[in-house]
Design goal:
Protein name: Transposase
Helix content: 55-70%
Shape: elongated
Order of helices and strands: HHHH
Largest sheet: none
Radius of gyration: 14 Å
Organism: Bifidobacterium panos
Structural class: mainly alpha
Amino acid sequence: MECMRRYHAGEKPTAQIREAVSNFKIIGCDRIERAFARWKHTPNRGTCGTTDPRDHLIAAQALRIQQLEEELHALQQA
């Protein structure tokens, strides 16, 4: 998982999410930190195959936020 490689290289989790999602505060810093803490202890770090449903929820929320931001940007440009 790219995010864990960057995390182990010393990059903060919130910095990674801030780079990926412009309004990362909707997800919340604590939620991001907890997700990375769970992922750090996942036996198979090379994949996204965690069993914690919160990980899926966080990923889905981040994707939906990104989609809405892109839609808003397109509407503002019109």
